[in-house]
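Assemble and predict.
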Amino acid sequence: MRVSTRAALAVSLLVGFHVLVLGIVAGLIGIELWALSHARFVALKLAFVIVPLIYAVLRGYFTISGRQTGAEPGIPVSPEQQPQLWRLVRDLAGQVGTRPPEFIRITDDVNAAVSERTRFLGLIAGHRTLYLGAPLLAGFSERQLISVLAHELGHYSNRDTRWSALIYRGRLSMIKAGSRLDDEKWLHRIIGRLFRFYVLRYILLTADLVRRQEFAADVMSARCTDSATAVSALREVALLDTVWRRFLGQRVFVGWDAGYLPAHIFTGFLEQLAEPARQAEYEQLRHDLDGEETSPFDSHPPMTARIAALESLGAVPAAPITDRRALALLNQPLDLLEYAYRHDLVDEAKTKRLADFGTVQSAGLRFQLGAAAAEFLDHAGRATGGPATLRTVLDAVDAGRLAALDGTEREAGPDLGARARRELSRPVVEGGLTNVVMVALVDAGQARWKHDWASEPGVQITGPDAEQLHDSIVDALVEGGSTASLRGLLTAAGVPLDYHPAGTRPTVLTGEN
Amino acid sequence: MVLTQIKGFFVWRREAKRRGMGLMEFMDSVSSKELAELLDPVDPVRWGLVPDDQVTLESPFRDQDLETATAAAHAGDWRPVADLLHRAGQDWDRRAGYVAVFGRIAAGDDAFLRDWRSARPQDPGAAMIYAESLVQLAWQIRGGRTAGETSDEQFEGFHRVIQQVEPAALAASQLAPHDPTPWFTLITAARGLGYEHDRFRALWQELIQRAPAHRRAHESALQYWCRKWYGSDEEMFAFAEAAASAHPQLHHLRLQAAVESQAEDKVIWRVAGRAQWLDTERELLAGPDGARPDAPVRRSYLAYCLMAAKRWPEALEQLRLIGPYAGGVWARFGDPVEAFLHHRKATCRNVRI
């Protein structure tokens, strides 16, 4: 199908949707009216079918074409608060040839988007909002930010095809609408299925058009900067996405269960990004864009295709580039990002103690590992009838009772013999025993939690030789092994064999923070 | 059609009553095959076969010593096992059979084996059973379900254990360098270890240097070469051909290969050269081979292939000679006894027609 035909069809599907629904409803009412004037009794019976049917159709229709509701993510920033950012956005909207957004909101994710409140499946446009993710603002250079903004605004410029902005809006609201239909009653379910079928046709029909629009929007971003910057922005998004997710898991929420949160999240994030020892890995991540899977519901073409298209465009900067960090555009940038990020956290976050990253991580790891170790020991105590201590575990290991030490719930396997069960339990017991040993060493001052931006968080053994310790655990767990050398090492390190980790309850703040 | 239904009504109602069920309940509880059989009953005894209720999985060649040693191993006593292996001497096939039996026992509970190995660390028999038990243990952990229904933990356990087979088998081979049994274990483990063809051929050389006509090893290697593992129909048949022409006592490998491919290749027995295999196997089993311990298994393959070739009277002849033993080819079915009974009935019915 030719692009223009396809576009015309997409638009007529959008318009046709409303015409079709109103036509059906009018037809049903017409039948009922006709019946009323000719045979009252039949009309009465017919009404039992027609009235619920009209209701179901209208209900589905308003669900799909109604306004999108729901709380807005992030926090708004006004032109007075962030004049430089607003000026940049307005300038770019002018360059791209579309109207600037009415609102700018800073959000907590690695994303930038422009969205519109639309009605009638995007046939009527409404307020426009620009969403900017705090991690992007932290990681981007100014020109990378310009490139991404030009792309997002480019979707609303009408330069590529006459109907492209309309189709783009229609598609977004169709996708949203498809997930809003509920299916409680059977009649609604049937009508809902019909509507969903229509929505699906539209989405598949426009997949190709929308991909073309992505390429067109990319061209826009290269024109407002240059090819190299546009490519670097795409790569930077991939990098920031990965680093941010890891950062949240390893550095921010590591202390959550223990009752801690870092006081300055974005200061840490910037340090993490700037860590010299990580730059080679980051460069790798920027280039790790291959091998993505695609589906008709994806709004974007494969990243590699976009990069190839941008590079072949060969847009060069109009003038020598002077680039700075995107943060330079903002007033009090770190406070803003910090506030935006915390704003979307659940209320429970307010009960957390704020501390530096080292403290958060030590408390968090001690809590997690301590809780895991305690759980393992408690199970061992219950399973053997002894006290829940390290000694009980070591004795059971020496007696070859690995399966008893393993508290994993497994699907009943009647054909598993004692030896097979022992074999399955071996790695579980190794993990549990290692946890107990590590926490015990930390508590005895023979190991510490290491915190630096260059390496993954973990335990650093300072007392006994780490390799020797590992070997002694392996020796204890092989078939017919012995815990003698492990016991010797632990005793020499001052770990009491009757060890059970204390302090595995979270710290909870009460009252004012 | 209507008549069949009316007849069915009476026959099935009588059977349902006999089982103390209502007709509908009865019809839900049995398969359509069983319902059909009730309408057209066949009594195998009238065709010279043993009665259905005498059919058993127990081999007609009872090995009293093996039974004693098995009971001892279950009770934790390794000495009778050690004696048994010692007495098997250089009867490699027999030795491999014993190692497989005790390997399976040790994969479930290895108390006897642990005692044995700590009492006699240099005993090659114990080392061989240990290596074999790892293969069986690995497959027990893997379980018989599809990959989707098998947990990561099971896969990891399987790999961890199967990786230990090679060092264990090589250690056993060091204790008894002329014994092919550790190599037999490795030939079997090669499927689980996913060995490449070259690596497998190297193992195979080690084995046949020590025992050129090792029956169990050939049967195991045939599995490696079949399509569902690491070979193809061509490689499997080439292997079976080579073995059968070098060693007449391995002639049945051709039939085993045929059974492997039969499910896909319905017309396999219409090829003249292959039909000849059945004649040869039949003649071999009419001679001294028919008195060997593996004769019932070989007859089961022959009977099954004769049925596939629709040579019913000859199949019936083999079934008569097999007697009550439901082992051999029938072990490929979920319920061997049921499969054996079903194929017997089908043969009787076809001979009658």
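The longest helix of chain B spans residues 124-142.
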